[in-house]
Design brief:
3 helical TM bundles of succinate and fumarate reductases, about 220 residues, mainly alpha, 10 helices
Length: about 220
């Protein structure tokens, strides 16, 4: 099978969806959480981290472009896989019990993925495409840079609860995504199922709770 045949095959698309998703978890989401948790150490540390990233200049731009491309590929291929699955199915499940065997996270993957995409668009406009300067950066009349922008954003109940809700969705989405990586590459069997499920639920929960803990910090301190 050549590259063209592989990319046009259902298995090829599914494996690329798994690989791009795994790349986003390891290369983007986890480092992003670690960086965001520096918020808990105060404005000097958090803003210092932000300034360090921006000091990378063109390197940071290249990295951002690479992850943007990875994300776009993941979305496009995921949509194609969903469409192909529905076309192949044609009619409702021939064996109704098959649908019941799928977990909630598996059945809701297209919806959770859509919610996450919409959230990312709003997230970029909230924190990336906005100037980290007064008035949005002011805390008690003092310019606190990106730290102030984040705190002021989460002082809004709508953003606070919306962010928390989306982070729960992220955890649900990741829990099945990690299982899919093992499944797609034939690494999930009867013996491995318990371990794979345990790993996926643990990773999804840790990332979700990690992001939500930032909301707790804002509520308790401000």
């Amino acid at each position: 099978m050549n590259i063209r045949q592989y990319l046009s095959s259902s298995l090829g698309k599914k494996q690329l969806v798994s690989l791009t998703g795994l790349g986003l978890i390891v290369g983007f989401l986890t480092p992003h959480l670690i960086g965001n948790l520096l918020l808990l150490k105060g404005p000097a540390v958090f803003n210092g981290y932000s300034h360090h990233l921006h000091s990378l200049g063109i390197i940071l731009k290249v990295i951002e472009c690479l992850f943007a491309a990875l994300f776009i590929i993941h979305i496009v291929l995921s949509v194609l896989v969903v469409i192909e699955n529905r076309i192949a199915r044609g009619t409702p499940y021939r064996h109704p019990l098959d649908a019941g065997k799928r977990s909630l996270s598996a059945r809701t993957m297209p919806f959770t993925g859509g919610f996450i995409f919409l959230f990312l668009v709003f997230h970029l406009f909230d924190f990336t495409f906005v100037k980290h300067a007064p008035p949005v950066s002011l805390l008690n009349g003092q310019d606190m840079g990106l730290y102030g922008v984040v705190i002021n954003a989460f002082n809004s109940p709508i953003r606070l609860f919306g962010y928390g809700f989306i982070m729960i969705i992220v955890g649900v989405h990741l829990s099945h995504a990690i299982q899919s990586v093992f499944q797609t590459f034939g690494l999930r069997n009867e013996r491995m199922t318990r371990w794979v499920n345990g790993i996926s639920y643990t990773v999804g929960t840790l990332l979700s709770v990690g992001f939500i803990s930032i909301l707790g910090y804002v509520c308790l301190r401000y």
